[in-house]
Give the backbone structure.
Amino acid sequence: MNKPDFEKISEKFGKLTMKEPYTRTRFLSKQARGALDLFRPFTLLAPFIVSMSIMVASLIYNKNNGLLTEIPNDWWITIGQAAFTIALVNAASNSLNQSADVEADKISKPYRPIPRGIIRADSAQSLAYLLYLFALLRAITINFWFGVFIFLIIFFTVTYSLPPRMKKYLFLNQVWIAIPRGFLGILASWSVFIPEGTHPFQKTPLIIGGIAMTYLIGGMATKDITDAEADRATGTHTLINTIGAKKTALVCLPFMIAPFVFIFIFIHAGLIDTYLWPLSLFMFLSLFIFYLMTKGLESKTLENVHAWSIMYVEYIFFALAFALLTIIAN
């Protein structure tokens, strides 16, 4: 009798989810799979897809507004390389964060490769530094501004996990992670196709980046729900382990709703184009995330609660919608 397809896949590549035990496979050693898990592949989808979407939108926008004389023939190669660079920084950040959170992970996420003894903490940190260096060197070959933003993103992600370890400070930890993943990530992506002698600080990317950052300030609280006890035991202060999940949801709701409501204000003030009004509809998905935050339902396969997963999905679709509306209107 033939084995089910998922069993065949498991034999070749090992565990299919983060929470399954590490097993010997045909193609990947336990160490190789452990290194892959350090990167937390699911979380890399957001920076990769979001950055590509913003790059395509900026390319079309700048061409339509006369900032670019023509679209480069190899634009898709540039987008692929730049998006990979941003995702690589995120992978480095995830690896560094796990190397610094060993004691907390032993409590709340013992299935991760370091607590299981598959990867050593110092090896994960060294891997993170190598990825950071490669990403920075790759970024400066694309253009100056992209290199600047990648450097700033690296600064925020390193200081989040290592001294002064902004992760341990109440609410500031949410702001500190939202700045690189939202505001700086949007500006980095927009800067890929800016003409020489100009800068990326245009109204549209600044506002879209601000919307993303504000949304993530609230949304990033979802990642702390399953870590509440572990964070408390290791001296990390989050809204979740300070005021509880339901009160945290109420505090974070304005941050997840307001940026989409403000889209109408930005349009009325002439700061962004009218065709972007459908982005305001994402406020309803934020309400759903708020509901899930109050429930705190943990996923059986992914690393966190369902609200955390939907938070990433909303961010991805926000960027895709922005790109699609820009393409259609221009």
Residues 75-100 form the longest helix (26 residues).
